[in-house]
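User: What would this chain look like folded?
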Amino acid sequence: MIRSSFNDGWSFRRKTDAFLEILGRADAPWQDVRLPHDAMVGLERDGADTEAGQRGYYPSGAYQYRKTFFAPEEYRNRRVTLEFEGVYRNARVFINGDFAAQCAYGYSNFYVRTDHLLKYGSDNEIVVEARSGNDTRWYSGGGVYRNTKLIVGDLVHLALDGVRITTPAVDDDLAVVAVATEIQNESPVTRALEVLTEIVDADGTVVAGDTAPVTTFIGDTVTLRQRLPVPRPELWGVDRPYLYLCRTSVMADGELLDQETTRFGIRTLTVDPLRGLRINGETVNLRGACIHHDNGVIGAATIDRAEQRRVEILKQAGFNAIRSSHNPMSKALLDACDQLGVLVIDELFDAWTRSKVSQDYALDFATWWESDVRAMVGKDFNHPSVILYSIGNEIPETGTAAGAAISRRLAETIRSIDSTRFVTNGVNGLLAGGPDLLASFAGESRKKDSESLDVNGFMTRFREFMPILMSSEVVGSKTAESMACLDVAGYNYLESRYEQDGAQFPNRVIVGTETYPADIDTNWRLVQDHSHVIGDFTWTGWDYLGEPGTGRIEYEGDSETTNSALNHQGGYPWLTAWCGDIDITGHRRPASYYREIVFGLRGEPYIAVHRPDRFGRAVRVAMWWSWSDSVSSWSWNGHEDRPVRLEVYSAADEIELLINGRRVGTAPAGEKNRFRAEFETVYEPGEIVAVAYTGGRETGRTSLRSATGEVRLEAAADRTRITADDTDLAYVALTLVDGAGNLYNTADRKVAVEVTGPAVLQGFGSADPRPTENFFDTVRTTFDGRALAVIRPTAPGSITVTATAEGCEPSTVRIEAEPSGPSSE
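Assistant: Here's the prediction, encoded as structure tokens.
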């Protein structure tokens, strides 16, 4: 089949009333857009609607996309299919005014057969309609936010997602690669075919091949199975993610009818409570990050480069695994994980039959769950990075017999399609325990309606009681049946049960599918000490839009920002959750370096300075997902000679602190002190140095210098050569610094960006969790001295990005957009 991008040539508008449109009174103009496109992120936020808080106070809406494309006569005897990798939500597709397909779930890829509706030798109109509303607990975005493809093939062709590769036998000398190939004959005659399957290594050398005959009768779908021995295989793993290519060719009488190329990895995967998770026979502890699907300042638009960059930064920060919370991830993200060696838990749903918000997936689950399961597993099957399928997140039904039955049905459906991976489920003990758990804890016999339980509000107020509450026998008994159908039990905030459940359920393997960021030191010790606990996934690795203020800290005297209707969230203008190790621009926050030290991946100490203007102020709200309110900077203009508190993160025994060469003091660090040395001192501009000692010997040091003199605006692109197609982006970091490059985090100001050449400003913003500006404004205010502009090429050529700010010389970056190769495969 020939697959080509279908992302260009679209127009978009807010959906209008059909009768007004017929009367010519539709007032929503069409705008040209290039997919992937987020229809929601460009709308103005409004704090008046508290129900919109969970999605960051963006308004809901209905959207229309349309595109005209020419179908040549030669398509008449071909199979023409459209692929939509993700449309949010309740997508309906029309071709030349006629209904063609729909998909209820906003995160499933789906295919649309077009042949019966196309006009050959003529233009054809494709219209996609979608809507988003009070249907999710986070920022969903809206519209056609993932890639689209046009797929053209012969009437005798490989089935869509029809090549499935496994590696059932692997050792140092030989790997057996088993390839199952589905072939469909939609022609009017029986066809005698030959299928050539070749395994190609990273250098382009064919290392194994097999040709097999297969007869396909009219209307048949047949499966051909071939086993190919690959000598001295290169294995795929997190440290060396080696990828092979499987090239599948379908021929008849020497004519090539169809061909597909599929990337895959050769690896083994086992899990048990005694040896944990093993990849290629070696134990791997999962250093995991939960992530949402949005891409920060570009919203939910899933442009390939944005996904790849995110995986690059997560891996640099020490993570080796990602959990997609709480929906199937994009193909581009899976490709990046394959290429970079990051393991994946791909998750299906946030709701089954019980709603968490009024219009969520629970309304569609009974009708759509099986097709959505098949879509996710079909998408994931050949990706070596995928090791676990998660059937849900914090599903209330897991504490009931009916919920256990759904768990089994989901798990067995997955296993019937793919028996090579493991199945998990992110279980929340509070939700699963429900009224019985709360009644037992409170000593009350009266049971409350579980659907009226404000779980996040309860958890916010009663964190100190949670370990005791989660250790209750009620949690163990209520979740036992649902856990029994899993290969790996997913524990959300249930680390207090790791040891007791290891004894009570000796055959159970556990993964911490969701944990608090501040608990990583104690949680990681549990992972290291208990073989049946295979990893920890923090909430969250990367900050995200929606669930605003989930990780905020509020001080006495701050203006009221809490949303009373959703009291674990901040009121408008809060936008981001503010709980990620990495902020929405890709900048690593102090928590990220702390985690890297806990993981044993960083030897140098790290200095995090609490904002001095908040010194001594009582904390009014500190959410469970919060980190300390700190910045790695020693530039606090206007706070000279005022007290300041700071932390130094280190695995060393002791930290010595120096300011301008003067010894301030020492403090213990290391694991016994939760990897933190804490100091109070007085801010004095100059240089601050932290020196780490273990056993009296220096093991590392780090320093920060105060910014001095004029403020400079520095622009730097992540890459100055990009590809001029719909998959690539350039990220331009804008930073306020002094002449020596020291951060001016207290000199925030408005920065303007101008783009000239064949490109557009795809998004522009900062990590400010409470902005009032729009990501499509050309002027934005820096936050802690930083902002980020995202540039999308529109054609080959030279692109110039010029940034200006008051009191600063302009800063310019030049980016070359180079022609892309063939768009088909």
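Residues 444-457 have pLDDT under 50 and may be disordered. If you want, I can go into more detail on any region.
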